[in-house]
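[audit] Reproducing an earlier prediction to check determinism. Same input, same settings, fresh worker. If the C-alpha cells differ from the archived copy the diff job will pick it up downstream; this log only records the rerun itself.
[audit] input (329 residues):
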Amino acid sequence: DESGVGTSLTTIPVVLGQTYRLVAAIDFDGDELRLWVNPNSSDFDEGTGSNSADVTRAYTGTNWSTAVRLASGAETTWDNLIVATEFSELNLPAADVLTLRVNTTTGAVSMRNDSGASIDINGYAILSAGGALNASGWNSFQEQDLVSFPAGDGTGNGWEETGIPDSGYLGEAFLLGNSTFADQFSIDLGSAFRPTVFGQNNDGDLVFNVRLADGGILDGLVEYVTGGVVNDADFNGDGNVDGTDFLTWQIGFGTTGTASRVDGDANNDTNVDGADLAIWRSQFGTVGLGTGGLAGMGIPEPATCVLAILGLFVLILGWIRNPMHKSPA
C-alpha cells in the first residue's frame, strides 16, 4: 500500500494458514517499491528495470507513509524479520527445481526431484524449437492417473494435458490444486524424446518450465544421459511396426521372465505386458525401424497409415470375438 495512492497486488494467491517469505524494497534512487513473494537464490535486485520482483510500483518520494500488507483483514504473524541494504544479505534459500532427465539413446524421459526438499507444482511445459519431442510416445500425468497426481475430468480437478501436444510442445496443468514432488521422487514420461532429430546420443534443445503452487514459474533443469536398450516394437524384424507386431504381442501377453523381442517384449525386461503395448502404440505406423532400434524411424506415407489402421481394426474385431482375452485399449 502507498497511503493516499492505492494498492498494487501480486497475482500470487494468499492461502489461509500458509507461511510466506516476503521481501520488500524501497528504492529511493530509482523511485520504486518492489515486492517478492517466496523468493529464492535465483531472484535478484539490481535496481529499477533489472530485478525479479513479483510486483512493482512507482514511488514519488512525497509520501513517507508506505507499508507492505499481506491479506488485509486477516490475522498475520511475522517472524525472522531482516533489515538489509543489499539483496545478497538476505541469504535466501536455494531454488527448488525439478530435473527433466532425457535419455538420448532410447528417448525415455522422466521428471525427478533431486533438490533435497519437497516441491509443490501445478503445471509444467516442455519445449523444443527443433521439434525433438515425441507426442505419441509421451506418457502424461493425466494418462497415468497416479494417486498423488490424479487425472482431471476437464473441470480442472486434476492433471490435464494443455494445448496441442506435438513435436515442439508438451504440457499439463492442475488448475484447481497441486501435487507434491517429494525429494528423490521420479515419474516416467514415456518415450517423449526423438533421438533421431539431433542424432542418437547427442544432446537436444529442450526447455523445461515448472509452475509452482504459489504461482511462481521456474526454469527446470534438463539433464541428458545416454545408454540403455532402445525400445523396439518391431517384433518380427521386418522394419515396420504394424498390426502383425500387435498380434505377436497379443499371443505373448502374460509371458514373464523368459520373453524376448520375438515374443512381444519391446523393452527387454523379459516380460510381455502393458508397457510393451504402450511402446507398440507409440511406434505404430513407423517404417524403417528394423532390428537396430529407433535410428531408422521414418514417417509413413498416408496410404500406409490407412492400411495399417484398417489392419488394426480387423485384429481388434477378431479379439473381441474371442472371450478368452481382454481388450488392451
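[audit] rerun output stored. Observation attached for the diff report: Residues 49 and 214 are 23 Å apart (CA to CA).
[audit] end
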